[in-house]
Fold Substrate-binding domain-containing protein.
Amino acid sequence: MTDNPRAPRTATSRRNMLFGTAAAGAALLAAGCTSNENNDDSKESAGADVADSKPGKKVTIGFAGPQADHGWLNAITTQAKNRAEKYQDVTLEATEGSNDNATQVGQIETLINKKVDVLVVLPADGKALTQVGLKAMRAGIPVVNLDRIFSSQQAYRCWIGGDNYGMGLNAGHYIGEQLKDKKNAKVVELAGIDSLELTQERTKGFDDALKNYPNIKKVARQAAEFTVESGQKKMSQLLQAQSSFDALWNHDDDQGVGAERAIKQAGRDEFLMVGGAGSKRVMQAIKDDDSVVKATVLYPPTMAASAIDLARALGQGKGIAGMAEYEIPAHVTLYSAVVTKKNVDEYLPIGFT
């Protein structure tokens, strides 16, 4: 680390900044490699050296994600590739997505051997891929960890992802506000894969929000598997078990396709439905306002485009526009906005198919 945070770094100092010892590495990732020394007036007026759209130092970014077998995951890959194409100074080396941990590790090791400048990784399993993240960091290749987080902060330079707890919280508050004047209101929840921490966080956020509305009770919950088939099956079970309720929160718009089929087959329309993630199909249904679907809570796949922006800034040794710091942040958590008929036109362009 140098006294002047904008001074060029040697290969050795770059490696030390990225990895270092356990204590030093955590400190650098949390605070960035900056110094309060030599902050004269000229630097304060000039501000940090930030990445912008103008061509700069050429950067090769390696991108590795899971298999795009789900609408949201496909959108992640598309967002990353489209963003990289907008920059004349970025070359994207993208792997073929895989849900097999060993295969994905091998793909990332290939990118490490190619000596890419920066890695963007959405691991199929964050815990299982932590070691390869550490390997990249030790090799002096900064890692932007996308969404599913590695189990060690030393395995990445920056994490960017969605707010699963906030997603549930905002869904719960939206439903609560719609039902706050209804006596003995009932809600049901169609969750995702229960073994995933993200599903548990979404449910916790939802339950915590409902605590603010004593007139509302969650009467049933089913866990699906983020697929159309599971959504239809589990929604059918909820409908059979509950003769009536006032609101449904479905964690995932892809499994919501099946849920909506089950709802139509049952001829039920006495409740409002809130989706999750932000598919274009659901946004259009909200706009048309001709079904039970009234809102969806975003889990924006645009995070992959932002990950490319962060990786490019890292590769060029720059900060981010709009922030005074010389380094990019260690963590970026995206907001889970609620899309309704009032604001759907604003969000339709980022809806995924």
Confidence is low (pLDDT under 50) at residues 1-47. Residues 164-179 form the longest helix (16 residues). The first strand starts at residue 50 and ends at 51.
